[in-house]
Specification:
This protein is of the alpha+beta class. Helices cover about 45% and strands about 25% of the residues. The chain has helices at about 5-55, 65-75, and strands at about 85-90, 95, 100-105, 115-125, 135-145. Helix 1 (about 5-55) packs antiparallel against helix 2. It is elongated. The termini are far apart.
Length: about 150
């Protein structure tokens, strides 16, 4: 007589192997997208923190924030992303356009006040095994009116 318990164990192993492959592929895809979302969250937090610093040290404060200082705050908040800031020559022309850009702009509602705007652009390389790299362009902008 044929023992069906041996045949069923082999079938279960084969079915588990098929389901496990799909499950682990799905799990790794969720983890990769989680890393991309974490990178975006980090650049958004860096932009917000730099704007907070600039607002507290506005152009009318005793110690006004410079563009270099504002960009340093953003770079230091997210060190794992290796953000770079813009550099200028001694005559004030742009030498290198980095990931982080801080600017003072006139407020559209209140022309006597200035807003600070911090824009961070970051290219995140999504690393998918056995495929060519996919680059996601992540960008975060934060703007707020200077309080002083």
């Amino acid at each position: 007589m044929l023992d069906k318990s041996r045949w069923c164990r082999g079938q279960s192993t084969a079915e588990f192997a098929q389901v496990a492959v799909v499950f682990f592929l799905l799990l790794s895809a969720v983890m990769m997208m989680g890393e991309a979302v974490l990178a975006y969250n980090n650049i958004a937090a860096a932009a917000e923190e730099a704007v907070r610093y600039a607002v507290a040290n506005g152009p009318n404060s005793p110690n006004p924030a410079t563009q270099d200082a504002i960009e340093n705050i953003a770079v230091n908040v997210a060190p794992q992303l290796h953000l770079t800031k813009s550099t200028f020559n001694s005559n004030g022309t742009l030498n290198y356009n980095g990931n982080v850009t801080a600017t003072w702009v006139t407020d559209s509602y209140l022309s006597t006040r200035q807003d600070v705007r911090v824009v961070i652009s970051y290219n995140y390389a999504l690393k998918i095994p056995w495929m060519s790299a996919v680059t996601l362009h992540l960008s975060a902008t934060s703007q707020m009116m200077a309080s002083q």
